[in-house]
């Protein structure tokens, strides 16, 4: 079993009405989400910048496969 394998994903272009709890719920369908964060500033293209931390690399990879 992997130790200390928390993986953070950078997510962008989510709907404006989605909040951090919704972000956590959406990605939680694919694994154990440790935390989610939506930055208050947008990127240079006006898209929202978001981060989701998973408890394992496998969970993060599953989410990437689903949403990529």
Highlighted features:
68 residues, alpha+beta, 3-stranded antiparallel sheet, globular
Report on the structure:
The chain has 2 helices and 3 strands. With 68 residues, it is an alpha+beta fold. The protein has one domain: RRM (RNA recognition motif) domain (Alpha-Beta Plaits, 2-Layer Sandwich), CATH 3.30.70. The chain has a 3-stranded antiparallel sheet with strand order 1-3-2. β2 and β3 form a beta hairpin. The longest helix has 11 residues. The chain is globular, with a radius of gyration of 12 Å. The chain starts with 6 loop residues before the first strand and ends with a helix.
The percentage helix is 25-40%
Biggest sheet: strands side by side, in what order? 1-3-2
- N-to-C span: 26 Å
Largest sheet: 3 strands, antiparallel
CATH superfamily: RRM (RNA recognition motif) domain
What is the CATH topology? Alpha-Beta Plaits
Succession of helices and strands: EHEEH
Strand content: 25-35%
Overall tally of structural domains: 1
Tally of separate helices: 2
Based on CA atoms alone, the radius of gyration comes out at: 12 Å
CATH architectural designation: 2-Layer Sandwich
The number of distinct β-strands equals 3
């Amino acid at each position: 079993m992997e130790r200390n394998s928390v993986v953070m994903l950078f997510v962008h272009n989510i709907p404006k009405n989605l909040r951090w709890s919704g972000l956590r719920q959406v990605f939680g369908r694919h694994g154990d989400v440790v935390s989610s964060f939506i930055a208050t500033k947008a990127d240079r293209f006006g898209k929202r910048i978001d981060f989701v931390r998973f408890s394992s690399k496998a969970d993060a990879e599953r989410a990437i496969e689903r949403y990529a």
